[in-house]
Amino acid sequence: MVNRLFSKGKNILFSQQSSVLSAASLIMLMVVVSSILGLVRQRVLAYFFAPSDLALFFAAFRLPDTIFEVLVYGTFSSAFIPVFTRSLKKGNKKAWEVAGTVTNIGLILYLIFVAIVFFWTDKIYSVLAPGFTPFERQKIVGMARILFASEGFFIVSYVLTGVLESLRRFLVPALAPLFYNLGIILGTVIFSQSMGLTAPALGVFIGASLHFLIQFPLATKLGFRFSPRIKVTEDVKAIGKLAAPRVIELSVTQVVEGVQLFLASLISKAAYTYFIFGNTLQVFPVALFGTSIAKAALPTLSRQVDTPSKFRRTLLRALYQMIFAILPIATVLAVLRIPIVRLVYGTNIFTWEATVQTGMVLSAFAFGIVFQAAAGLLARGFYALHDTKTPVIISVGSLILNIILDFVFIKGFGLPAWGLALGFSLGNAVQASALYWFLTKRIDGYSQLKTFIPIAKAIVASVASGFVMYIVLRIFDRSAWVKRLSFLGKIDIAKNIPFEKFVLDTQYTINLLILTVFVCAIGALVYILISLILRSEELWDFVRLIRRLITKRLGIGIPTKEPEPVAPSPTDSRTP
């Protein structure tokens, strides 16, 4: 019995996902689980450390993460999987040589850069985070040096992720981020009393090693081996060429994130924590719907490049469905920002001021969620047309705009941390708009006005839903009446209403949770009702999807072998 269960478990872990549907479904499930565990991780950090202390921990990630993102993630997010998959067709030996060479090159480059910056870490952080005191920067430097070692595991681990996904083994790579989060959680819980802020940094090291160890056995079983050789073949050169545009883009992205740390440190010691916590909450809808839909659309778009009408129809349908799914979530994050932040981060040491500031950051992020997701899909439209240059140029331009806006909002207007989130959202809005504009120029036959009608319907439904949620929240939240924040409390006739009989005291977590779920349910019903009235086709798309899922007929017509690889999910990011 035990052997049978062990055998079944082994088959599940090691089995090959042979269809796009099975791979995409698995990844979406892991995105949800990883996002939930990521929120648990943040909750644990907020429980043990005040926002001003956590800002030091988050700041420590900046330098190690920059080196890793530029040198490694830029390669594996865009170049390694396609080339490795192609090299497999030439024979396993050549493919494993490519994997081994890329691993060695990645480790060597990383060690060189770490050796250069290791002894200059303090001076670099004095530039990156001038708002912190010398003593606080020493803490940052100490944690950063632990994190440098952690990133070394990720270099090898991301090679393993690329190898396994190329060989259509998606479950184990999808589990790796879960173990990473668990490592941070366990390290924080076990060592925080004795080691202070060093505990979560040690947790990152534990999580990074688990991220590697969970993938290594299967990769070894399939043929991966460490080798001291570096053999620069045509495939290795192709990886470098394909990765170059992405590396440039990520380099500018890291400059933006460095500017965000720089300015946040000048606002207040806790401002960077507010920014990171708000960003954690807004990433989920982008990863779940934006990235998933964009990935699913790319293979079809690639096959339809020679038939513009089909290409256009596929792209627009994917865009409409993405916006229809994400807009109501963005509305919820904006309207229910305070309840959501309280539920996720509301510990005894996470003050009301921290809640309000994080809520404002979340609202500013919510404005740009749709644009952020749309940019990912539209960029893939260019990729399908074999054009990687245009989306990178547009992305770099929007990132430069982001930097300018950050300085204007923070240094010019003196805005708090939400000004950084607003600059990020506006940069994404410009990027998505530019991508859409230039992509339509590449494809004949677009009717510009007509294409915006489904988007307008979703906006109208979201605004109506948000308005109703705001009213319902104000009516049933006891604190709104006590603080005279409810609009009814300002009406003379309503002053005699015994509000205690029907409102919820949201000082208690269970009442806050009930009210949040209730308001979300009302908002969802309003969104669906308005969409029905406006005859939104996207609503019926999701109804049909749910119906097929229930009847287990979603797999009909899906090819059993699909060459499109699935790149590492954005939720794999190492920065908490």
Question: SSE layout and pairings?
Answer:
Elements (H helix, E strand, L loop, with lengths): L1 H13 L5 H29 L2 H10 L1 H15 L3 H9 L3 H27 L2 H8 L5 H33 L4 H25 L2 H16 L2 H7 L11 H34 L3 H33 L4 H28 L1 H9 L6 H33 L4 H24 L5 H25 L5 H4 L1 H24 L1 H5 L26 H25 L3 H14 L26
Order of helices and strands: HHHHHHHHHHHHHHHHHHHHHHH
Amino- and carboxy-terminal Cα gap? 40 Å
| Number of helices, counting only DSSP H or I runs of 4 residues or more | 23
- The radius of gyration computed from the alpha-carbon positions, rounded to a whole number of angstroms, is 24 Å
Low-confidence stretches: 17-21, 553-572
As a percent range, the share of helical residues equals: over 70%
Kindly state the number of beta strands.
Answer: 0
Q: Give the domain tally.
A: 3
Class inferred from helices and paired strands: mainly alpha
Mean residue pLDDT: 83
Biggest pleated sheet: none
> What best-fitting shape do the alpha-carbon axes yield?
globular
Percent strand: under 5%
